[in-house]
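Hey all, sorry for the wall of text incoming. These are the three entities for the joint prediction.
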Amino acid sequence: MTQQINPVTDFVSAEVYAQVQQFYAHQMGLLDDREPERWADTFTEDAVFQEASKMEPLHGRAAIRASARGSVDRLVANGVRMRHWLGMIQVHPQADGSLRTRCYALAMRTPQGGDLQVFVSVVCKDHLVPVDGGWLVRDRDLVHDGAGNPTRSAQA
Amino acid sequence: MTQQINPVTDFVSAEVYAQVQQFYAHQMGLLDDREPERWADTFTEDAVFQEASKMEPLHGRAAIRASARGSVDRLVANGVRMRHWLGMIQVHPQADGSLRTRCYALAMRTPQGGDLQVFVSVVCKDHLVPVDGGWLVRDRDLVHDGAGNPTRSAQA
Amino acid sequence: MTQQINPVTDFVSAEVYAQVQQFYAHQMGLLDDREPERWADTFTEDAVFQEASKMEPLHGRAAIRASARGSVDRLVANGVRMRHWLGMIQVHPQADGSLRTRCYALAMRTPQGGDLQVFVSVVCKDHLVPVDGGWLVRDRDLVHDGAGNPTRSAQA
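and here's what came out:
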């Protein structure tokens, strides 16, 4: 997104904004509920998932599904409950009807019988495409605060 | 809730979603502002409040009020400020006009002159019933991450 | 705000609520993106910014800009990434078309190569005035949990 947003007047409609909020609540809920297959179904078949400080990019829903399944299996084996919070959502409509979004994400975990750790702050930039009256993620780029190249911008 | 939600298309209207968000902001604000009586008035007379890892279920608004009053009095005596954040809200409309919601909650506290502690992540499942153009909680079920039976599902 | 809010029925429209949410996501994003000049432009020329436990009140956009520029320069020098999360937003429309809002804020920081610290919980009370189809902050009052006079109310 190279366009300059006017933060005091550039709003999407409440309907679009509420849909995006609900999409994220459902989507990340599936991952936290340890349903990686249903979670992967919220990405397009050709989706690209990038989390540069953690792994090589994932290309396609099958790769996203396999990666999520591995993460979930490790959490179950270790008795750890993960929660992903997304907030501070910005929505930038595109001319083709898709949406570019940017939001903050907090990842936190609680081991069985242990204490909550809020362990990383992330900037999530998505490209959401309209499908069957809803939305799917075609591109997700996650940049962890404090990681990687300090000159890399986390800006929208 | 046993129905399977399609996370990419099952959205409630922006009006309903914004009402639920505002309801929670006001409701939890009352508790954090140490107004347990006004907080209890956001539950129905016959409401049930469950927080299995912490106490026996509370039956009825009077029991909810008394429990909240006790909590607030202890916080005041100890000079501790509590904050309850709710987020990642899912809203599932029911055939009778009521709403089943699920959201994440973070409880945090700051002692006078001390440091912030974000100490527990909770999944909150509510049954909200329409009353006088607004909403009241008829059932609240709070499940703490990391507590209780590890096989207990925190799923919606 | 001295009026008593009925938390179960006093809702603003979804359009207004979504605008306020988006305003905050954009506004605080500018500060976290280290754009203090664009951030200052989200305040009115005569805005007052209070953060009693941290500094004397700032009067006017120029003072707000200078203070933000100083903060950003220190963060850059120290290699620290800040994030400001706002949530639990209450919106109280005023007779003159302006909005009084109250929300929770969490400030968090991550040093380059270091760990996330969620270090303070704040109650933010704003007066938002309508300008050119959007909103600007005329007054902001930030009260840090655990700081200052323990009898000072953080209530709306």
